[in-house]
């Protein structure tokens, strides 16, 4: 019977749970889903990570290539993040070019990398004006059960931290490029931005780490990106207006969560040997 | 090529850093002889007729009707099945169900980076998977509807096609789609008189674009229905004599039968887990 109500009257179904401060998946309102992180799982990529937040799964691979830099920025390498939401991960997505949501996610990833300065494009320079690295960072959602933004961010940072590049040198006189695949240099990733997403249910309740079902019923959402003790970005795409108090509360919880996730990434990295 | 306006794009011309390695190690293992060490052992330590260990799990994608994940050492493939659902376009209407297949190598799954758009090779693989599965699925039971198979290769270390067929078969079965039989698949690489079971990417590359012309070289992949003892699809690339081809097919069938137990065990485990969840 309960399953029928869930399908026919999802909102009523949720309300009954939330009145008692619990969610249908047995979580409290401020409780996150368990996170599983696997770093370095794809050996054909220069760096990779797979994250599971509850059922939501995102895989990230970094593929490094060489290119000539832009003439006006001869020292800057290229960082190209792209998020894919393929039809494999949910019935809501159709085959074809990325939809609006995937484009927004890709742009957010690019913005966070630029804003948090976790990876400077100057650090990807091999020979100014001649040769720089291009990092193609591809994030693919394998199972869409809500909160893909947070999952993508963790996968992105973990994969970058895992990335090692072969040593490439350019001969000053002849301009010949020489790669030494035996010497590997890790990327200089200076910090660890973490996203925390909240949704607003029924114009008043704040739920953290929403599932797909909760996302579809949400009247508003806010994503806060923190980096250590600094705030990196707040993204609130419309919806229910929030009071100052509520935002402050969210930010505070985002900081606590950010530190926990950072610790998880550090711990996982230690267990990976390359 | 037109620029992709819906993705972030890097510079137009990029090249792989591994193209500039010293000539000695420029293209590791292109010569077929490099794949074989002394005493007929392969570089990964297997003997020629040995399969890689198969890791198979059903029910990995929570949103899909059925799904599967398969790992053959470094070859990793995920597959999900949606449907039966309604046909979107009315002109596609038919009383027989339709089966579609989408196949993609992830951009970072191979040594060389792949593009986001599906290329010819991937389309060809999708058709091959579809042909292998179609004859086994009872499509007449699903009028006016379609069943979609989506396959993604997370990492390719050879035998991606047979891994994809195995994953599709388990995903279809776990979705509860009616089938006449399971579809098993196995690959064999032929190199002169040698038959290399379940080739790795290094061995596949060596055989397909070998510079030294060998009399007979090729890769056979076969899809096999074990309980009705029929072959649903054979694909072969290369050039060998008819007898060798027949021999390789025999090897494929034997290997399929070895995998049969793994697939069955995986589906039984999945069914038990599902029943346990329902009982709660």
From TrEMBL, chain A:
<dbReference type="GO" id="GO:0034475">
    <property type="term" value="P:U4 snRNA 3'-end processing"/>
</dbReference>
<keyword id="KW-0539">Nucleus</keyword>
<dbReference type="GO" id="GO:0016075">
    <property type="term" value="P:rRNA catabolic process"/>
</dbReference>
<dbReference type="GO" id="GO:0000177">
    <property type="term" value="C:cytoplasmic exosome (RNase complex)"/>
</dbReference>
<dbReference type="InterPro" id="IPR015847">
    <property type="entry name" value="ExoRNase_PH_dom2"/>
</dbReference>
<comment type="similarity">
    <text>Belongs to the RNase PH family.</text>
</comment>
<feature type="domain" description="Exoribonuclease phosphorolytic">
    <location>
        <begin position="193"/>
        <end position="255"/>
    </location>
</feature>
<dbReference type="InterPro" id="IPR050590">
    <property type="entry name" value="Exosome_comp_Rrp42_subfam"/>
</dbReference>
<dbReference type="GO" id="GO:0034476">
    <property type="term" value="P:U5 snRNA 3'-end processing"/>
</dbReference>
<keyword id="KW-0698">rRNA processing</keyword>
<dbReference type="GO" id="GO:0071028">
    <property type="term" value="P:nuclear mRNA surveillance"/>
</dbReference>
<dbReference type="GO" id="GO:0000467">
    <property type="term" value="P:exonucleolytic trimming to generate mature 3'-end of 5.8S rRNA from tricistronic rRNA transcript (SSU-rRNA, 5.8S rRNA, LSU-rRNA)"/>
</dbReference>
<dbReference type="InterPro" id="IPR036345">
    <property type="entry name" value="ExoRNase_PH_dom2_sf"/>
</dbReference>
<dbReference type="Pfam" id="PF03725">
    <property type="entry name" value="RNase_PH_C"/>
</dbReference>
<dbReference type="InterPro" id="IPR027408">
    <property type="entry name" value="PNPase/RNase_PH_dom_sf"/>
</dbReference>
<protein>
    <recommendedName>
        <fullName>Ribosomal RNA-processing protein 43</fullName>
    </recommendedName>
</protein>
<dbReference type="InterPro" id="IPR020568">
    <property type="entry name" value="Ribosomal_Su5_D2-typ_SF"/>
</dbReference>
<dbReference type="GO" id="GO:0035925">
    <property type="term" value="F:mRNA 3'-UTR AU-rich region binding"/>
</dbReference>
<dbReference type="InterPro" id="IPR033196">
    <property type="entry name" value="Rrp43"/>
</dbReference>
<dbReference type="GO" id="GO:0000176">
    <property type="term" value="C:nuclear exosome (RNase complex)"/>
</dbReference>
<dbReference type="InterPro" id="IPR001247">
    <property type="entry name" value="ExoRNase_PH_dom1"/>
</dbReference>
<keyword id="KW-0694">RNA-binding</keyword>
Automatic annotation (TrEMBL), chain B:
<feature type="domain" description="Exoribonuclease phosphorolytic">
    <location>
        <begin position="50"/>
        <end position="178"/>
    </location>
</feature>
<dbReference type="GO" id="GO:0071051">
    <property type="term" value="P:poly(A)-dependent snoRNA 3'-end processing"/>
</dbReference>
<dbReference type="GO" id="GO:0000177">
    <property type="term" value="C:cytoplasmic exosome (RNase complex)"/>
</dbReference>
<dbReference type="InterPro" id="IPR020568">
    <property type="entry name" value="Ribosomal_Su5_D2-typ_SF"/>
</dbReference>
<dbReference type="InterPro" id="IPR050080">
    <property type="entry name" value="RNase_PH"/>
</dbReference>
<protein>
    <recommendedName>
        <fullName>Exosome complex component MTR3</fullName>
    </recommendedName>
</protein>
<dbReference type="GO" id="GO:0000176">
    <property type="term" value="C:nuclear exosome (RNase complex)"/>
</dbReference>
<keyword id="KW-0698">rRNA processing</keyword>
<keyword id="KW-0963">Cytoplasm</keyword>
<dbReference type="InterPro" id="IPR036345">
    <property type="entry name" value="ExoRNase_PH_dom2_sf"/>
</dbReference>
<dbReference type="GO" id="GO:0006364">
    <property type="term" value="P:rRNA processing"/>
</dbReference>
<comment type="similarity">
    <text>Belongs to the RNase PH family.</text>
</comment>
<dbReference type="GO" id="GO:0005730">
    <property type="term" value="C:nucleolus"/>
</dbReference>
<dbReference type="InterPro" id="IPR027408">
    <property type="entry name" value="PNPase/RNase_PH_dom_sf"/>
</dbReference>
<comment type="function">
    <text>Non-catalytic component of the RNA exosome complex which has 3'-&gt;5' exoribonuclease activity and participates in a multitude of cellular RNA processing and degradation events.</text>
</comment>
<keyword id="KW-0271">Exosome</keyword>
<dbReference type="GO" id="GO:0003723">
    <property type="term" value="F:RNA binding"/>
</dbReference>
<dbReference type="InterPro" id="IPR001247">
    <property type="entry name" value="ExoRNase_PH_dom1"/>
</dbReference>
<comment type="subunit">
    <text>Component of the RNA exosome complex.</text>
</comment>
<keyword id="KW-0694">RNA-binding</keyword>
<dbReference type="GO" id="GO:0034475">
    <property type="term" value="P:U4 snRNA 3'-end processing"/>
</dbReference>
<dbReference type="GO" id="GO:0016075">
    <property type="term" value="P:rRNA catabolic process"/>
</dbReference>
